[in-house]
Amino acid sequence: MARLFYPAAWRSDVVEDLFGFPVSDPYRWLEDSDDARVRDWAAAQDRLFLTCREQWREKAFWASSVDQVSSFGVPEPPTVRGSLMFLAEQLRGDEQRRLIVVDAEGDRRVLVDPVEVDPSGHTGLYAWWPSREGGRVAVQMEVAEQPGSDIVVLDARSGEVVDGPLPRARNTSVAWLPGGDAFYYVSRVPGEELAPDDMRLHRRVRLHRIGTPWQDDTVVFGGEDAPDHYYGLTVGADGRRLAVTAVAGPTAQNDVYVAELADPEAPRFVKVVDGAAVGARVLPRFLADGALLLVTDHEAPCGRVCVADRHDAGPAAWRTLIAEDPQAPLDECLVLDGPALARPLLLVARARHGTSALTLHDLADGRLLTALPLPGAGVVSCLRASVPHGHQAWFSYCDATTPPTVYRYDAALGTMEREAGTATAGHAPRIRSRAVRCRAGDGTEITLFLFTPDEEHQGPRPTLLYGYGSFGMPMRPWFFPLAAAWVGAGGTYAVACVRGGGEEGQHWHDAGRGPNKHRAISDFNDAAAWLVETGTTTRDQLAIYGQSAGGLLVVAAAVRRPDLYAAVVAEGPLCDMVRYERFGLGCTWTDEFGSACRPEQLRWLLTYSPYHNVTPGTPYPAFLFTGAVTDLQTGQAHVTKMCAALQHATAGDRPILMRREPGTAHAASPASKERALTADILAFAAEHTGLASKTTCGSGSA
Fold first, then answer.
1. Would you tell me how many other CB atoms lie within 10 Å of the CB of residue 103?
2. Which 8-state DSSP code applies to residue 588?
């Protein structure tokens, strides 16, 4: 392959002295996206990408494959309130999900269709919160490349707007009071009240009464002493109590506050859980008697369920209801306490090495009553029940070959039925799924999910290895259209459950965050090496793929071991870990990665920061960096700076490319753009690993 001529990128002599460390930053000028030089350079990169893409073989094949394995329908369980059922549906050809309401007679109507709001398809349905009685629903839309989202309130039967918009409510939580005339929500402080360079969140919990201007909404919680906090809201079934969880960014611990609602506009909060003292996550829910049901990893890295008096919720007063299973992290639990039941029940979802199990327990003492049968060895998610009291539970199930399917469990009858779900546009390929264990360099066992064609094959296959390894997010053997298309073409798709994720509980997360982030990267490289050593693939057939923090993982892994990979795909990655706090929401992620403002933590960051570990004269693998033109979450400078650094440094002839997408967000795009991106990722990975469609293979051998 001939070496490419890359758009010229000026290398400045910027070197900062940070606590005695000389830190070079030759491409800092690329951070200013408004600079004409940056725009011209990025436009040249766009042209280079399009030129290279034209040379990829079988672009049409991959586009068709992705279309055939993409799923359409109802992927998530409904939200049931009163006699109404609310669900999101996306049909083939829809750019975004639509909100559907179903009444007691089974009649369906479209409540919100984002394309009617924005025919371009760039406005999507982000979240919805029906009132307890179901008469009203608060709806939040998301517009690509815009930092805030508004809430509007609709009449659930007519679809008419009855209130709103309430501005700046992105990443909010909504808790309705009984009667449907008021709710608590979270919104950011207006920008004009902040300093021009203040990137903090500045969120407040407010009470909104239907029909009143948002300017009159009372702030009931939050202040200047907590500029980076996220808040979760829960109101008890009787509407007499409010619980607020407060967490500074995606940290591993949170505070819990509880208030009596004698006056909803002036709740008096009592701090019942001190996150700093407990050092754990604690998620509260009110039981019918006013006690607190607590899901926590305190002294239980894989999670346990406790009960506590709302007035004395310190750890010493917690009564364990469902004990920790060290081999099966707790995913979710759900209370079923409808009048049709002989006694209140607790439905618990766990995952053992990625495979879900559902068990039913007596809520009074946690006693196991039965294990519920599942359709297969797959993943259960999104447990939901009617509010405030119900005896039915809905959940989503999927596995490597089954797209998301909604099931309903009736605890009164003891029955399980398929209720809704999704289907692929074409025939999904037959996929063999299995979990294997490999050892990291320090002897720690790592789980790898392997997805292969359901056919006998001798010898290595082109392989696409995925990883994430941050924020305690567990990897599971989900149905993934990208994986299905890759395996359908004859490749192997693998997922590495590295430290930093949540596959083995909180201790697994702790082992790969902060000063231990290097372990996540080493785990990933060790998993890749295992794939080569076992003959699953070869170095020339191995591509790696990661998104967001997973993009950091794969880029750091490839910079550390460029000899191990043929190609790297990083979607919206973090790359400059010295300045990541200055971009997007990076300032809220210091608990996960560390801060360059502290000497010891700067040392951690410099050891693995991809941008600072690029070595000139190294034959790097092929790289494809993808991302939104305006990425409000991670910031687009990671992509531009890393691309320029690698283009300058590489001594090989494999391309370093950047694919930018206008009119999209960090993780939300119109469906057609998502499919086009997936097709490009697969075509790029196939081009550099030698994966060809069976049609091409057949014609070549004829």
1. 15
2. G
